[in-house]
Specification:
The complex is a heterodimer of chains A (112) and B (115). Chain A contains no helices and 11 strands. By secondary structure, chain A is mostly beta strands. In chain A, strands 2, 4, 5, 9, 10 and 11 form a 6-stranded mixed sheet that branches. In chain A, a hairpin with a 2-residue loop joins strand 6 and strand 7. The radius of gyration of chain A is 13 Å and the shape is globular. With 115 residues, chain B is mostly beta strands. Chain B contains no helices and 11 strands. Chain B has strands at 4-7, 10-13, 19-25, 31-38, 42-51, 54-57, 65-66, 76-78, 87-94, 105-106, 110-114. In chain B, strands 2, 4, 5, 6, 9, 10 and 11 form a 7-stranded mixed sheet that branches. In chain B, strands 1-3-8-7 form a 4-stranded antiparallel sheet, with no helix packed on it. In chain B, a hairpin with a 3-residue loop joins strand 4 and strand 5 (42-51). The chains are: A mainly beta (112), B mainly beta (115). Chains A and B meet through strand 4, strand 5, strand 9 and strand 10 of A and strand 4, strand 5 and strand 10 of B.
Chain lengths: 112, 115
Amino acid sequence: DQQVKQNSPSLSVQEGRISILNCDYTNSMFDYFLWYKKYPAEGPTFLISISSIKDKNEDGRFTVFLNKSAKHLSLHIVPSQPGDSAVYFCAASGRTGNQFYFGTGTSLTVIP
Amino acid sequence: EAQVTQNPRYLITVTGKKLTVTCSQNMNHEYMSWYRQDPGLGLRQIYYSMNVEVTDKGDVPEGYKVSRKEKRNFPLILESPSPNQTSLYFCASSLSFAGANSPLHFGNGTRLTVT
């Protein structure tokens, strides 16, 4: 059963606008959440993370929001750039577990 | 340069012919893991290792073996590959175990086709 879900397989956004990628999880024991970006023919690269003691973490154009009560996190990219076009995976892990659980990915296209 | 190196990048083989995909990291990471990526299924964990000589099953371990004799290497072994193991494989490592706020670093992937 998928513990981390990304319900939007794809998203298209105009350059300069905001991109919002969403992720839901089911396991309330998860306490560390990450976003990865993946270009074709490359491995995923770490983008940004957030621990459950926070509800927001910012790094330049990228902000991750965590809503624990809704078991929902989102990644905001502002402003979006064509180089942001990639597949984005969210992932989660728990304090007592030894595994990362990944979503199915959202393919973002930023249109120039 | 800090990196995770997988070899080969591409591999075509036939059913039943044993193969090994190598993975090496130069960051002195304790935790290493193998994932497969399939369309619509995302990244699913095959096996992971907390440290040398410590390995455990992930979510989809059937048909795979691993070993961790040295800290830097974590090979993935398919003793008798089958067509349903055709996939894109990623090796990853992190400084410490999954629950320690330590992100994974990934290799560039191995595209395996089993005919």
